[in-house]
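Sanity check

After download, print the first record. It should look like this:
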Amino acid sequence: RLPPAMPVEVDVDLPVEAYLPRDYVPDMRSKIDLYRRLARVSEPEDLTDFGLELADRFGTAPPEVRRLLELAGLRIAARGWGVYRINLEDGYLVLGYRSEDRIRRLVAQSGGRLRVVDGCSAYLPLGEGVRTPGGALDTAKALLLPG
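Expected structure tokens:
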């Protein structure tokens, strides 16, 4: 469970197109309901079930929907690491964190590539080939998601 000081929301601001397209979920009420439900998903198993439900109801997910699910998985993993914010800044993936112990473990897991710069921010340099919109998401997933 999350410690009391950990915010429930994780703000992920990465340059990817992630949404439910009109041609995938045409009904606006259904779309709003799905967004609300997805925002409440807090466990990887529930996210898997949500993705299966989407496929069952609406068919094979287009890339925008797959990225939406990937972002939800990233938010879940970030919470587990005590990370409350993920964004890009001048060629770096920036993580806002609340747990010094957890971020130190994440630094160790990254082989030292992730650098703690102050009491609430850690920076991971992005290589030139990673500075594409999908590359930042892939880098964040590789850092935060288990094996």
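If your output differs, re-run the checksum step. Summary of this record's structure: The longest helix spans residues 63-80.
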